[in-house]
Design a protein that fits this description.
Length: about 290
């Protein structure tokens, strides 16, 4: 099943529609040349389902209309003896209605599955990716690096006084602080970058195609924006950030996080609002 899904997802839309059209034409032809008492009505649902799932709602409705007309033409030309001339047209309306309902239902099912998948990959408090989504996307980035040898950077951020905020101001204030941090970071990173919340007050940024010089530039700008946002909202908190640029790929995503986590704790030991950088290549070089 996964093979067929991957195959149809990779097909260009024009080629997909040509395949669906050819399938409908084949069904109509088979329907026309087959004994009239043998119904092919249910088989028309297959091209309709393909059109909805891989082409969208409008494509599904278009396929439903084409299938209904094709079925109607095959039905009319087989010259069945109906007791009333209105009957075939009534059958056409009913058939079209069923096909459209099936099309709409499949579209709703797909949207529900997509929303459920998004919720499973999203941190509901901050709206950024969660730990599951980070591991999935970081794993893909690791595979891409193994293939193309392009660098990427991981930035691991931890709030230093988050427990103090929760204990003294309450969990609602802590939640607002986390949203403030997430919004400040999201506003300052590229659309190709990923921000994920992987712990209570721990955030990770994945920066593809980012070498050590670019990483320093991005992180310095990000640190200034974050500090400004915290001061603007009068949050008396600081942060520590560990940044690792990978010139050579780490063994696993866990290994990737561990190195960034170590650098974050090294920054935390130096004081408030500190950042530590590491470049991972033939040997670890700490700067």
């Amino acid at each position: 099943m996964a093979f067929y899904s991957s195959f149809f997802n990779r097909l260009p839309k024009p080629l997909l529609f040509i395949c669906i059209g050819a399938l409908i034409l084949g069904l109509c032809t088979l329907d026309y040349y087959t004994e009239p008492r043998i119904s092919f009505l249910v088989f028309y649902l297959f091209p309709i389902s393909l059109a909805v799932w891989y082409g969208g709602k409008k494509s599904g409705i278009a396929a439903a209309i084409v299938c209904s007309v094709g079925w109607f033409m095959a039905d009319i030309f087989t010259a069945q003896g109906y007791s009333h001339p209105v009957i075939p047209y009534w059958n056409l309306v009913v058939t079209l209605g069923v096909f459209v309902i099936v099309s709409a239902s499949l579209h709703q099912l797909k949207e529900s599955l997509r929303n459920a998948n998004e919720l499973a990959r999203t941190d509901t408090l901050t709206g950024c990716a969660n730990r599951r989504a980070f591991f999935e996307i970081a794993g893909n980035e690791l595979k891409r690096m193994n293939r193309y040898k392009r660098p990427f950077t991981i930035a691991y951020l931890d709030l230093d006084e988050f427990k103090h905020v929760n204990d003294n101001l309450g969990h609602e204030a802590g939640d607002n602080l986390l949203r403030c941090v997430a919004d400040a970071i999201k506003a300052d990173i590229r659309s190709s970058d990923l921000l994920a919340r992987i712990g209570g007050d721990e955030f990770v940024m994945l920066l593809p195609e980012t070498n050590e010089d670019q990483a320093q530039s991005v992180v310095q700008k990000l640190a200034a924006s974050l500090q400004s946002a915290l001061q603007k909202e009068n949050w008396a908190v600081s942060y520590s950030m560990g940044v690792v640029t990978y010139i050579r790929p780490p063994a696993t995503v866990d290994d990737m996080l561990v190195k960034a986590d170590h650098m974050m704790y090294a920054a935390k030991r130096e004081g408030k609002n500190k950042v530590r950088f590491l470049v991972w290549k033939e040997s670890a070089i700490v700067r």
